[in-house]
Amino acid sequence: MMLQRKLRNSIMILVVLVLAWFYISGDMGLLAMWRAMLHKKILEAKLEEEKNRSRSLDEIICRLQNDTFFIELYARTKLGMIRENEKVYIFVEESDSDDMSINMDFVENMTEE
Q: Comparing C-alpha atoms, which of 9, 31, 34 is closest to residue 20?
């Protein structure tokens, strides 16, 4: 009698533990849902970044289509173009490094205006 009762309790505990295990760690368990929610947040953040980038590119496109000053600025800085009969002087400071590249970040600053 006592042995049957212990066996029944042990089986019930085992069944509850197995069900709890599947509830927590199965394909649709709590851990999987937590991982999916975390992945969703990461994807939403990336989506917001891409939307911001798209808006910025749309603004640049609009300015390139309509703003002659911006077109000239873009052509001069990104494409290295100059006007006819115009002379360009590039002053290079002597330094220890061999890096002679020109930083053209001010174009991005112009797009923010």
A: 31
Dist. CA 94–CA 83, nearest whole Å: 28
Let me know: does 73 contact 110? Beta carbons within 8 Å: yes
d(CA 36, CA 28): 10
DSSP 46-93: HHHHHHHHHHHHHHHHHHHHH-HHHHHHHHHHHS----TT--------
Q: What percent of the chain has pLDDT over 70?
A: 83
Q: State if pTM tops 0.70.
A: no
Q: How far apart are CA 113 and CA 107, in angstroms?
A: 11
User: Strand, coil or helix: what is 1?
Assistant: coil
pLDDT at 96 over 90: no
What's the CA gap between 90 and 107, in Å, rounded? 18
